[in-house]
Structures are given as structure tokens and as C-alpha cells.
Specification:
This protein has about 280 residues and is α+β, with helices and mostly antiparallel strands. It has one domain. It is built from 9 helices and 12 strands. The longest helix is centred in the N-terminal third of the chain and has 17 residues. The chain is globular and about 45 Å long. About 30% of the residues are buried.
Length: about 280
């Protein structure tokens, strides 16, 4: 679901259109916006009214879940992301469709990385973002499930399921698959994104705590990059695929493993530079 966010939406349509075909993209526009119609040419644009903002997160999640299941009747896999989220596969791991085709589990997670604008890096041009930004912050709590098959529910960065019927699930996070979050990749884009959240009536609690959340990000970025980015990324992937948080798991929620030591700056891998 998107509200304004024109530059990121344009990049989103171009990137996923190349990966999946624009005819297979569905954009939910939160309120009529003629610019969205222009940007999403060749895609499927669905406009919903913006007059209902009370309990925004609750009804948004329910509506998007229903829409995902509707699409699952026509597609083997359905991917759900925000306009500033790009699921990118390292070139050594294959393409995004190839990775999905190899999966046995009916859901897939990707490693969350906050791509940010360094102190000496200029504002973005029309070139790919990963060709203009060198570093990203691995942010374990932003790693999330992004694709499901029919009957599975994406919820709160994870998967909702019935623990009485299913056991032994793991966080299926293929190595070499990243969820690049681009809100910090540009100062101007970040400020516009922030303004939309702060000014929104009945904003979700997480949005109202945006200052605290951003301070945590900046504190982690201030630690600087790790010595060996490849080794750090592999450590995070290994933990995700071998562990689960039992309390959350038994509550019927499968989410990524979150540890504070995971949240460190890495160099963007060569295999994703220039991809988006």
C-alpha cells in the first residue's frame, strides 16, 4: 500500500517490473492519486479510499492479507512489500524468481538491510541506488517474510500459523537474499516519509515512536562497518535458519531471530551493486 512516495514507487515498478513483468505487479494506492496512475502504467493499480484512518494497521493488515490470498488463486507465489522495499538476490544466488522456484517451504524471509546515505555521499540521481550507496545496516528486526503460497498469512514481519497443527517450522531465509529498505538512502526521501507518518491522524504506535526508533538506527550506524562483511552476513543467516524464538513460535507467530549484535553496518555485497 502506498501514499504519495512517487520516487520510490517509480523505482519499485521499474525494479519488480524487470524481475517479474509489470503486468504481474499490483499496487494498492491509499487514496486517489493521478501521479500513481502515470507511474504505474502497465501495472495493475487498485485505489482504495483514504477516509478511514482509525485502527489503520489492523484493517490494513486484514485487507492486504485478503488481497494476497485472492492473488494466490492465480499465482504460485505472491510477494508483498512496501514501495521502499526491494527484495534483491545476490547475482551468485540467481534471480528472485529462480530462488522462489527452489523453495520447499511455502513462505520465504529475506535479510533486512537499511541502505543509508553516508556523510560524504550526495543526493540520489536517477541511477540505481545500490550504485550510489556503499553501506547498509543489517537490522535483524526488519528482516521479514515477504512471499507466501496460498493459505499462509504474512503478519508483523513474520508468518501467522496454528501451532496446534504445525510443528518444526523454521525461518526460511535463503542466503544471498536481501530486503533492502531505502527510506534512509536519501535525506529528502527520508524527511518526506517521516512527515507523512508524523502528521497522519490516528497513526500506529510504532509510527508515533519514530524518534526513538530512528535513534536506535543512528546509534548502530555510528559504530561503523564490521571488519568482515561477508562473515557477518553469513553469521546472521546461519542463526535465522537454525533457531526460533519459542515464545513467539508457540503463540503461532514465526519471526526472524533478533539479537543486538546482528545490527551492524556492512559493505553492500558486489553481487547486488547496481541491481536496484
Amino acid at each position: 500500500m502506498v501514499f504519495r512516495d512517487y520516487e520510490m514507487l517509480s523505482r519499485w515498478c521499474d525494479y519488480y517490473g524487470t524481475q517479474l513483468g509489470r503486468e504481474n505487479l499490483y499496487i494498492v494506492s491509499h487514496g486517489f492519486d493521478p501521479h500513481h496512475k502515470e507511474i504505474t502504467e502497465g501495472c495493475n493499480l487498485v485505489t482504495i479510499p483514504r477516509d478511514k484512518l482509525t485502527d489503520f494497521d489492523a484493517w490494513r493488515f486484514e485487507m492486504l492479507h485478503s488481497f494476497v490470498q485472492f492473488l494466490c488463486a492465480s499465482y504460485e507465489w505472491v510477494i508483498r512489500t512496501d514501495a521502499d522495499e526491494f527484495v534483491v538476490a545476490d547475482s551468485s544466488a540467481g534471480t528472485l524468481p529462480q530462488i522462489l522456484e527452489r523453495q520447499v517451504d511455502p513462505f520465504v524471509f529475506a535479510l533486512g538491510v537499511e541502505v543509508f546515505q553516508g556523510q560524504n555521499e550526495p543526493e540520489l540521481t536517477s541511477q540505481p541506488i545500490t550504485a550510489q550507496r556503499r553501506h547498509g545496516l543489517v537490522w535483524a528486526s526488519y528482516s521479514k517474510a515477504f512471499a507466501v503460497k496460498a493459505g499462509w498469512r504474512l503478519e508483523n514481519h513474520g508468518i501467522r500459523f496454528d501451532p496446534r497443527k504445525l510443528t518444526g517450522l523454521r525461518v526460511n531465509m535463503p542466503e544471498g537474499l536481501y530486503l533492502l529498505h531505502m527510506r534512509l538512502s536519501s535525506t529528502s526521501i527520508h524527511q518526506a516519509h517521516r512527515d507523512r507518518k508524523v502528521l497522519m491522524p490516528s497513526a500506529p504506535r510504532s509510527w508515533r515512536n519514530i524518534d526513538r526508533w530512528e535513534q536506535q538506527l543512528h546509534d548502530a550506524i555510528a559504530l561503523g562497518p564490521v571488519e568482515d562483511s561477508t562473515a557477518h552476513l553469513r553469521q546472521v543467516w546461519a542463526a535465522q535458519n537454525k533457531s526460533r524464538l519459542r515464545r513467539i513460535y508457540h503463540a503461532g507467530k514465526l519471526r526472524p531471530v533478533v539479537r543486538s549484535e546482528f545490527n551492524r553496518v556492512v559493505e553492500l555485497p558486489v553481487g547486488i551493486v547496481g541491481r536496484v
